[in-house]
Design brief:
By secondary structure, this protein is of the alpha+beta class. It is about 70% helix and about 5% strand. The chain has helices spanning about 1-15, 20-40, 55-60, 65-80, 85-90, 100-115, 140-200, 205-245, 260-275, 280-300, 310-350, 350-390, 415-440, 445-450, 465-505, and strands at about 45-55, 115-120, 125-130, 250, 305-310, 395-400. A four-stranded antiparallel β-sheet has the order 2-3-1-6. A two-stranded antiparallel ribbon has the order 4-5. Helix 2 (about 20-40) runs antiparallel to helix 13 (about 415-440).
Length: about 500
Amino acid sequence: MNTIIEEVRSALWTVWNRRWQALAVAWGVCLLGWLVVALIPNAYDSKTRIFVQLDDALAQQIGIGSSTREKDILRVQQTLTSAVNLEKVIRSTRIGDDITTPAQMERAVQALAKKIVVVAQGENLFEITATSGRSDLSDAENAQLAQDIANRMIDIFRESNLGESRGEMRDTITFLDQQLAERSRQLEEAEQKRLAFESEHPDLAGGTEAISAKINANRDDLRAVQADLAAAKSALAAIDGQLASTPRTLVTADGGGPKAALAQAQSNLAALQARGLTDSHPDVVAVKKQIAALRIQTQGAGGDYGTPNPAYTSLQGLRIDRQATVEALSSRAAAIQSELANFAASQAKEPTVAAEAQRISRDYDVLRQQYDKLLQDREELRLRGQVETERSAIKFEVIDPPSTPRVPSWPNRPILLFAVLFLGLCAGGGTAYLLGRMRSSFATAGRLEETFQLPVVGTISLALTDAARALHKLRMRRFTAASAGLGVLFLVLLIAEFVQRGTVA
């Protein structure tokens, strides 16, 4: 601790012993610094806030709602400080008074881009800050110029969101009308060409894609007809089998004739067997002999003496229907096969014509799709333009008009003046201290003893005569006056700065 105190005492004595040198350096640094601060032009900021309302039910219903508008506003925010817009600001303010060449305009645009800031405050609120700090203008003129720039930025913002979008909408609709007229002419030519080709080659109407579609459809029809034909033939075969096992007539017991007697005998045999009689029973043997004899008689009989069988008649009519169905399906299958053969023969016979048909059909389809798409886009844009004209989807409002700056935003001159004063004092003290360290002198006895490692017997105080003491007092008064003059000059500069601000207000 004693060492630190000794060092501080030594430093203070060194500086005080060379106080005139320290004061001279402080005056020099302060004068130079204050001159630099005085030459820095004041910059004034003019701020404005604008609000953009995006809620519009009709606009959202037709697809130009908030999502699209937010993208538009983001685009305007990003392009607001573009070279084109900044050039408009320069030409409409006094910035462009002295600009005569493109190079000067380019430099002015680059400089102005650094002095305009657009910040989004929330979803619909934007703040525009314009700064002006030209050295060739007075403070009042810089303040007015900053306000003029902010006003012009509001105009450009409004034009970018409302005027330019509507102008672009009209230009786009005009362009689409021209494209529609051209596509309509091309589509009509393609349609006439297609009709002429189809009248000359009816088999190739629609191109190869249409023919392929027809072939595929015919093949599907053929498979379906063949499946139905197979089912019909199967049903016809089943009917034939039933007819073969069904008698034409039914023989009854009272119908007379050998067949009737045979039927009666067979009925008697069945009754005897039902009673449990064996084949060796006399009655059974007798009935069997009777049946054998009647069978011989029926084989020689000339006709049936029974009644017509209704089941056979019904099956016969059903067979006629099934036969007609089979014949119809066979004819349909033959016609489809013939048509498929004709398509194949036509493609194989004229491949270049088929390729031409495909090309004509493809060109027509492409033109038709383009025409329909352009027509749809034109109608959507026209409706959108009507909505924007009759009911603006954007409600623009200036929340805070461009402010008239009364205090410079930069530099903070009082702080800079004080910083220069502090730097000057530090520079003076540091210079005196360094000069003292460079010379072989000792401020205290302790420093002397520490340096030479020898004991110091004593020190001799400074003794002044009356004349020397009077001279010392005179020098002290001069030093005090010079130091006070530095402080007074600082206060004068500070007061001048506030007075200057008052004149701007």
